[in-house]
Amino acid sequence: MNLVVNSISDAGAAEVVGFDCRSIHDTADQRWGDIQAAFAANPILCFRDQSLSAKEQARFARLWGALEAQDRSAYCNPDDKDVLILSNERNADGSQVGIVDAGDFWHSDSSHMKNPCRMTMLHALKNPAQGGDTHYMNLTQVYEALPLTLKRAINGRNGIHHISKTLNPRVSVSEERQGAKEYYIKHAKQTPPALQPLVRTHPDTGRSALYASPRFTIGIDGMADTEAQNLLDELFEFMFSSQSWMYDHKWRDGDFVIWDNACLNHMAGGGYQYPDTRRMHRTTVAGGPAFFRTDRAPAAEETGNTNS
Length: 308
Hints:
- By secondary structure, the chain is an alpha+beta fold.
- The chain has six helices and 16 strands.
């Protein structure tokens, strides 16, 4: 079988049509190779018109590897604890059904962890009448376009990543999420930062990608903070300097999107308010340590973008 895969963005997004993810149960299925090949070629892959239960979504996700443990059990799906509910819906008592502020700033999932998330999977059960897009940025394309001076400034260096928004002046804590401020204050005190390479070598393709985000990257290891913040500001300014490596996904009910956190940043676009509701089910595949192959560092004679 050959999957019907249509490119929908030069930033690395494609859609799969006419395929039911419920129909594949193990990696011995002959179609599994087609799915892997489609994802290798397209780090943002949307399966259209899916009707996955929480258990079926988790089963499909486990085909890719072990799933990340969820630390916010109150928002896990009761049918499968590996499925996290992202929603602005409310229970009868006014409590929140799911995480209301998930993905509200540009980031790569779980980069604040020693072993960051490899893949994220999001199933759209209900979309609002307006808003609710997810924005993606291809960081392989960003790195390839970086001026050589910036490449040399970051190659071999580690960014400092932290989960707590209270430690990051580039972001803010949502007032809509119940208990959010207390959650981040606790993590600021109890959770150590993680060091991640500012340039990450993709574990499958070997290509280099910028690995930093306004959400989680709060400093640069071994660099004075003022210098580090100036360099991060330069990187983030460059990241947003072109639409060519960006893709905005406008969700349809039934969309099931999987993406590769080793080479992408993403952000929830918002733009909707209760009682206009949005509900997504999220699963995340655990990854190994992020790494940088030093032999990929740009040589003095490297050609390409040499703007400073």
